[in-house]
Specification:
alpha/beta
């Protein structure tokens, strides 16, 4: 029986920062037996994620509109795709086009809806109602497509949980990526079936160890969020999917597992939530 792959639940390996050496990055991931979900953050990157996932057997895609790209928007998805993709990679000007993302999500390589959610860390107070409305539309897209949510949440857990509970009868649980909430937040999200991904930050701070120890191992997954937040011993470098092994090592230590058992459990969790590998 072949070993389970390591699983990078949330990466952005299709982003332009990898254009110069992406083949080498993917070779290193293959050497480490890494499977992954590469995640869109707007129309341009979501469409590119789907295209990229068709190039590799071990890559799947998530499509959605990051809350940081929804504020005071003046461009719809078709305008984004017809304009200069490199310039629009960083734009904050996209309206959520439900029909566009529905078409993307219908692709067989798409296994999640997101990166979507709420981010109150940098964005203005007046953006909150817009973020909340767009997040609710992602929940509806998830329900209609039967694909789980890939949630981003920063400094917004009370509102995020309230919205999810308001949609409790129809929400399709997925994951809260790069989870930074409290044990109480985790308890409430577990109650409606969500799981949690952790990345390189857990290798250089103890801030999240308590919540990891609290969570059932069946609801824990690993990620890189590449190119961001590389783990020790790569801290300060551009992150990449191969580095997810270091996060799995730390998760295994915190949960009292061997690295092989932790790797296998994470992959089984990914199969359950995202139907990958089928």
């Amino acid at each position: 029986m072949n070993d389970s792959p390591f699983f990078d639940t949330h990466t952005h390996v299709h982003f332009p920062i990898f254009d110069a050496d992406r083949s080498l990055v993917m070779d290193r991931a293959d050497e480490q037996n890494i499977s992954m979900i590469t995640v869109g953050t707007n129309a341009v990157t979501s469409a590119r994620a789907v295209s990229f996932a068709h190039e590799y057997q071990n890559v799947w895609a998530a499509v959605g509109l990051h809350p940081g790209h929804t504020i005071f928007s003046h461009h719809d998805a078709s305008e984004l795709l017809s304009a200069d993709a490199a310039r629009l990679q960083q734009t904050n000007g996209e309206q959520f086009d439900f029909n566009f993302y529905t078409r993307l999500a219908a692709d067989s390589r798409v296994v999640a809806i997101g990166e979507c959610g709420l981010d109150y860390f940098r964005l203005a107070e007046e953006s909150k109602p817009i973020q909340q409305e767009v997040f609710s539309r992602h929940i509806e897209l998830s329900r209609q497509t039967g694909k789980p949510l890939m949630i981003h949440c920063r400094d917004a857990f009370p509102d995020l949980i309230d919205i999810l509970y308001a949609h409790r009868s129809s929400v399709l649980p997925g994951v809260v990526h790069f989870f930074t909430g409290t044990v109480d937040d985790a308890h409430k999200l577990l109650d409606i079936g969500f799981s949690f991904t952790f990345g390189g930050v857990i290798t250089f701070t103890t801030d999240y160890h308590g919540v990891i120890q609290y969570l059932p191992v069946e609801h824990i997954l690993s990620e890189t969020d590449a190119p961001y937040v590389a783990p020790v011993p790569y801290r300060g470098k551009r992150n990449e999917p191969a580095f997810v092994v270091e996060t799995v090592k730390k998760l295994a230590m915190l949960k009292g597992f061997s690295i092989e058992a932790m790797r296998d459990q994470i992959y089984q969790n990914a199969i359950r939530i995202f139907k990958v590998g089928s």
